[in-house]
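Batch job 17 of 40 flagged for manual review because the log was empty.
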Amino acid sequence: MKATRALSVASSLALLYDGSLAATSGSINVLAMNVAGLPAILNDNAVPGDKATNAGLIGSKFAQYGYSVIHVQEDFNYHAYIYATDNHPYRTATSGGVPFGDGLNTLSKHDWVNFRRIEWEQCSNASGADCLTPKGFTFMRLALSGSTDNTTTVYVDFYNIHTDAGTEADDLTARQANINQVAAYISTWSSGNAVVIFGDTNSRYSRTGDTAVRSLLASGFTDAWVENQRGGVVPTVESLCSNPSTVNTCETVDKIFYRSSPLVTLKATSFRYDSTRFLQANGSILSDHNPVYADFTWSAGTSFRQSAYFGGDYGTWFSDVPTLSTKTKPKPSTLTFRGASRLDSVGLTLTDGTSLVHGGTGGTTVSLALSSTEYWVEARLCKGDKSGQTRNFYIRAATSAGRTLVAGTATADCATFVAPEGWHIVGFVGQAGDEMDELAFVYAPR
């Protein structure tokens, strides 16, 4: 698997704020659109007009309708024209035109952390030139809401996908491998998190032998189209959409899937094809794909919430949320950290004996036993640079009894995380290797 890391257009803590406290519920909408950005000399996509002009018009419509989060596919050689007329504050940098880029980009009203591009491990040229570009998927952890003091942030993991096209046997095999790959990535990197997947799947439910999108349903995802336009019934008879589509019950290969988590509840409240918004002045289409749109409501968890992240985007993802969600009123009985010049590991033991430990084995171990009426209510982290990578260097835990536990070495770049009133710190999420790279705290009601 190939992966590249890119910096967000703003720092990981520059989130959408809702005063001093994070909003605990809200709504967003999403749009997925294949923008037909292959060079005209390679593919005109049966779209009338000049591709550069059309791309500029697409960008202006993104701005006009103010979508919350937009995923685009085939955003290759006319990318600059889209961005020139769009006004979303957060946008991914292009990975390049054909044959260098993957054609995947995101335009958003919300900031994110941990953006990555991942190339498919398998492709097929049986029906076309799918192996011409490094197609794949992108990942980002998007912040729907965040408090100015870092106390709480509501994150959802967003995936933009463009799978192998075609209907030959090798295409079907490659496409299923693509979906299996993104599902495996989600299992590792989105454990414990809410997820939204949207983009060009090149898959339909009614095709014989095409099991790709069905496998996403089987792995616990909901299709916003099936839910809102098909009454929850997966189609078995093919019903192709015209372009622009005038109905929403027909099926395209462009899909929107989602799942909730103990930290965030998501609900798709509508789905439609936004085709009539994306037309030229003479009524001609701007892309050979119907854009797909969905409205979502979201609410922060009532049993678990989390802080903002602090540190660097390195190491392996971990989350205590799946374990904590099996507990009734979890409470730490002991805090245990390891540190020296930097923070090596963080851990705690719950009152039922469950141990939650992350990081390496270096440094000196320090521990603090909590009384039955004592809670971990505040944490302070400091970060710094080690070998060109940002890591957490220091942690200071403070309890409701005024006691503290310290590990590592303090720096000048620090942040304090305070549990919301009536809540306490019960676990961790983040990334770690031999040391603590990125860290956030999980809260639960007392």
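Reviewer: the log was empty due to a logging misconfiguration, but the result itself is present. Residues 1-19 have pLDDT under 50 and may be disordered. Unflagging and moving on to job 18.
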